[in-house]
């Protein structure tokens, strides 16, 4: 776990604008006084430049200064010392001497001993182990397992993905690879794969290049890979030949067949998808059947339109590649996981449902980053299906004078047709305003009583006017969503299912505490609580920096109800910290309400001001419900 000042730096670098001290303190699980001390320490290290500005609204990072400060500090962290020790073990076929290593790292032998305990935890279950003989320690395991360990180091250190390819050399200890080689390698690999009939996944290709660089470096140090778990196919041979050319040209390394076939498998199962024709890949009938059942179940459970032949084929190909990656223990990184989870919680939830069933049927354990790729498939399909649902109806009010109203309608259709549909045009000077029921009213004359639907316009629209319409449409769309949420929430809260303060040492304990009042009310049984815990183990339900929404995958509650817990400070939840935990119990009858409540509840708790207001004023059940309603009403 990173130290708190480093977590603080991450929060500030992600934030847009000013962040109150109380919000930072809650996110870190410390006091505002500690936050002030961390920021003072950061600014002392960055002097004479200021890494973090302070003001009446809180704190704001100078991004360039703070990011540079983090890079300079990386070598001094215990995490970096641990990784340095692992790299030394990887590079020493005869092992390392504890006392010499302690001298090199400028620490005591006892510190190295303690770090070795952490190394054992790091490599546990990865096919590697430490072998000890007096002061000498040797890392034992096959070459492929050792390469996976190098990859894991890079993944842990580069939390925001692999956009800075040159940094991989230092991160993964790739001393034989020139930093300048990564970018041209990536560009040429992507271009030639496209020419060979593949769609290239830009999110994964950089991660694949990491594995290629690791392999090139290991081969340069006389540690080739002699075999793989996958038999070479014609496609694999084709990609292997391309990799052979590129690694010799850019990395100055000639690899053997074992390395090239292994890397070609990674490319084919992680970074590309066939366009068709000669590159078409046959589908495994079992995988296709499993994916089809999982998608149909998710579509029924969450009432989403995703059962389409093209979607099923693309997702089946993805899962087929996922099975190959599982055999190689070469999971894909997805730098968009965090943003997908917070911005599209319902899409992510559908992906979790599919991943759970696919994993059970195929014997796979599918992590968050792989679930995020499934979510991207689901989101793409839903985007096509849901476009019509997001279009708002509009009435144009424009007194008839030649073709003014027609010109106005034409301009609106051209500029906003994807989000606003003009369904009526009023050309009277005194229309019946009360009879206009569309989502928006776009008018060139002042209405008697303007409301949130109304946008006053000149007869001839400018770009600024279309932007005002778009902004009004966004506000109206949100208002309609939150109105639906308010109507639903009033039925689902109960004063007995509100806990403040919520004190729990684990997610399982918190779910149990919140589930107990619902059991007492006859809403759920103990089995539902256990299934909510099982769902949490699949993927953390911390969808924002403030809120976790634990729930079971199946909607088996006797009726729909919400149990709310508010922490004093914050609770650790997965890799995050949250202030609010809402256990959601849904019944089959309320399936249609699931998407409304789930997505909009996350939206409300994604707003920092709303979270702070609820923390300050929602001290009891009545106060919480009043403030939540007020927040929703804006």
UniProtKB/TrEMBL annotation:
Stretch forming the signal peptide: none
SUPFAM superfamilies referenced in this protein's UniProt entry, alphabetically: Phoshotransferase/anion transport protein, PTS-regulatory domain, PRD
Gene3D superfamilies assigned to the protein according to its UniProt record, in alphabetical order: Mannitol-specific EII, Chain A, PRD domain, Winged helix-like DNA-binding domain superfamily/Winged helix DNA-binding domain
Repeat recorded as keyword: yes
InterPro entries the UniProt entry points to: BglG_antiterminators (IPR050661), HTH_11 (IPR013196), PRD (IPR011608), PRD_sf (IPR036634), PTrfase/Anion_transptr (IPR016152), PTS_EIIA_type-2_dom (IPR002178), WH-like_DNA-bd_sf (IPR036388)
Record GO biological process: regulation of DNA-templated transcription
Keywords: Repeat
Keyword Repeat: yes
Pfam families the UniProt entry points to: HTH_11 (PF08279), PRD (PF00874), PTS_EIIA_2 (PF00359)
Domain PTS EIIA type-2 stretches: 491-631
PRD domain mapped to chain residues: 282-388
Protein name: PRD domain-containing protein
Organism encoding this protein: Nesterenkonia alkaliphila
């Amino acid at each position: 776990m990173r130290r708190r000042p480093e977590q603080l730096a991450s929060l500030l670098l992600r934030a847009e604008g000013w962040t109150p001290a109380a919000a930072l303190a809650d996110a870190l699980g410390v006091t505002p006084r500690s936050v002030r001390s961390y920021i003072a320490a950061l600014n002392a290290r960055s002097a004479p430049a200021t890494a973090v500005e302070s003001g009446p609204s809180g704190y704001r990072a100078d991004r360039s200064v703070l990011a540079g400060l983090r890079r300079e500090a990386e070598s001094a962290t215990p995490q970096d010392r641990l990784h340095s020790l692992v790299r030394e073990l990887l590079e020493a076929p005869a092992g390392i001497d504890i006392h010499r290593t302690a001298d090199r790292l400028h620490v005591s032998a006892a510190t190295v001993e303690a770090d070795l305990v952490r190394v054992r935890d790091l490599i546990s279950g990865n096919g590697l182990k430490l072998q000890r003989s007096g002061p000498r320690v040797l890392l034992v395991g096959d070459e492929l397992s050792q390469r996976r360990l190098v990859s894991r180091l890079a993944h842990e250190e580069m939390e925001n993905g692999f956009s800075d390819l040159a940094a991989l050399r230092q991160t993964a200890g790739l001393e034989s690879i020139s930093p300048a080689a990564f970018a041209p390698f990536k560009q040429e690999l992507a271009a030639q794969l496209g020419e060979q009939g593949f769609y290239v996944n830009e999110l994964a290709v950089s991660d694949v290049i990491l594995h290629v660089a690791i392999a090139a470096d290991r081969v340069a140090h006389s540690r080739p890979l002699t075999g793989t778990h996958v038999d070479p196919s014609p496609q694999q041979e084709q990609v292997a030949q391309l990799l052979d050319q590129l690694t010799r040209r850019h990395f100055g390394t000639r690899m053997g067949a074992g390395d090239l076939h292994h890397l070609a498998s990674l490319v084919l199962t992680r970074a590309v998808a066939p366009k068709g024709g000669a590159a078409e890949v046959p589908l495994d009938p079992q995988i296709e059947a499993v994916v089809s059942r999982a998608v149909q179940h998710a579509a029924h459970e969450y009432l989403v339109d995703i059962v389409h032949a093209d979607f099923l084929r693309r997702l089946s190909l993805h899962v087929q590649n996922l099975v190959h990656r599982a055999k190689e223990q070469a999971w894909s990184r997805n730098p968009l996981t965090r943003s997908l989870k917070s911005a599209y919680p319902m899409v992510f939830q559908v992906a979790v449902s599919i991943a759970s069933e696919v994993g059970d049927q195929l014997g796979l354990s599918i992590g968050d980053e792989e679930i995020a790729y499934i979510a991207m498939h689901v989101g793409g399909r839903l985007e096509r299906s849901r476009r019509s649902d997001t279009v708002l109806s509009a009435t144009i009010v424009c007194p008839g004078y030649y073709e003014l109203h027609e010109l106005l309608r034409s301009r609106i259709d051209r500029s906003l047709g994807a989000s606003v549909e003009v369904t009526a045009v009023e050309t009277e000077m005194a229309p019946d305003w009360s009879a206009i029921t569309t989502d928006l009213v776009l008018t060139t004359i002042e209405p008697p009583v303007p409301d949130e639907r109304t946008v006053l316009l000149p007869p001839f629209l400018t770009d600024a006017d279309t932007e005002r319409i778009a902004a009004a449409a966004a506000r109206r769309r949100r208002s309609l969503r939150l109105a639906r949420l308010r109507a639903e929430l009033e039925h689902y809260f109960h004063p007995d299912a509100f806990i403040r303060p919520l004190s729990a040492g684990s997610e399982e304990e918190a779910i149990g505490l919140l589930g107990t009042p619902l059991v007492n009310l006859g809403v759920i049984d103990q089995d539902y609580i256990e299934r909510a815990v099982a769902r949490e183990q699949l993927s953390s339900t911390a969808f924002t920096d403030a809120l976790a929404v634990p729930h079971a995958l199946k909607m088996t509650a006797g009726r729909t109800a919400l149990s709310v817990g508010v922490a004093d400070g914050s609770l650790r939840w997965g890799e995050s910290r949250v202030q609010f935990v809402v256990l959601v119990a849904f019944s089959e009858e309320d399936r249609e309400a699931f998407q409304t409540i789930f997505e909009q509840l996350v939206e409300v708790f994604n707003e920092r001001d709303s979270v702070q207001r609820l923390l300050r004023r929602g001290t009891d059940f009545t106060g919480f419900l009043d403030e939540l309603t007020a927040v929703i009403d804006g």
